[in-house]
């Protein structure tokens, strides 16, 4: 299984206590939905290593977890800062008009019917989520807001938007230095 077959749910923040427990940051909409996790995939170097969970206690976006076979603080230290993943097939099915953010990567973005480019990445900067698109050789960041992103069609790989006038032009202007 590769990272492309998975979605990231968070990362290991630090060790907790002396018996191998770790503190996790859960970067998900509803952390309590993960209270009954049996296992996770922890990225170490470029490999995804499965870890079975002995117990997990979730409090807001943080959790204390104990992985099987991690029995002391030194073993737990090796996991600090490691991203945590679950397979994509763990995601619940959505209604036809709903989508997961990771599904936007690779889709074609259109503004008022004109192709702007393909979505390369998504960024979360503070409370703002942004779509990164390469347009005329330059990166353009478009806010992921309902008033801008009008329709996402997973079947046709198309995003229809109403980008505010002048936003794309800001990115296309030559540097005057």
Automatic annotation (TrEMBL):
<keyword id="KW-0963">Cytoplasm</keyword>
<keyword id="KW-0143">Chaperone</keyword>
<keyword id="KW-0690">Ribosome biogenesis</keyword>
<keyword id="KW-0698">rRNA processing</keyword>
<dbReference type="InterPro" id="IPR056792">
    <property type="entry name" value="PRC_RimM"/>
</dbReference>
<dbReference type="Pfam" id="PF24986">
    <property type="entry name" value="PRC_RimM"/>
</dbReference>
<dbReference type="Pfam" id="PF01782">
    <property type="entry name" value="RimM"/>
</dbReference>
<dbReference type="InterPro" id="IPR011961">
    <property type="entry name" value="RimM"/>
</dbReference>
<comment type="subunit">
    <text>Binds ribosomal protein uS19.</text>
</comment>
<dbReference type="InterPro" id="IPR002676">
    <property type="entry name" value="RimM_N"/>
</dbReference>
<comment type="similarity">
    <text>Belongs to the RimM family.</text>
</comment>
<dbReference type="InterPro" id="IPR011033">
    <property type="entry name" value="PRC_barrel-like_sf"/>
</dbReference>
<comment type="function">
    <text>An accessory protein needed during the final step in the assembly of 30S ribosomal subunit, possibly for assembly of the head region. Essential for efficient processing of 16S rRNA. May be needed both before and after RbfA during the maturation of 16S rRNA. It has affinity for free ribosomal 30S subunits but not for 70S ribosomes.</text>
</comment>
<dbReference type="InterPro" id="IPR009000">
    <property type="entry name" value="Transl_B-barrel_sf"/>
</dbReference>
<feature type="domain" description="Ribosome maturation factor RimM PRC barrel">
    <location>
        <begin position="102"/>
        <end position="167"/>
    </location>
</feature>
<protein>
    <recommendedName>
        <fullName>Ribosome maturation factor RimM</fullName>
    </recommendedName>
</protein>
<dbReference type="InterPro" id="IPR036976">
    <property type="entry name" value="RimM_N_sf"/>
</dbReference>
<feature type="domain" description="RimM N-terminal">
    <location>
        <begin position="8"/>
        <end position="87"/>
    </location>
</feature>
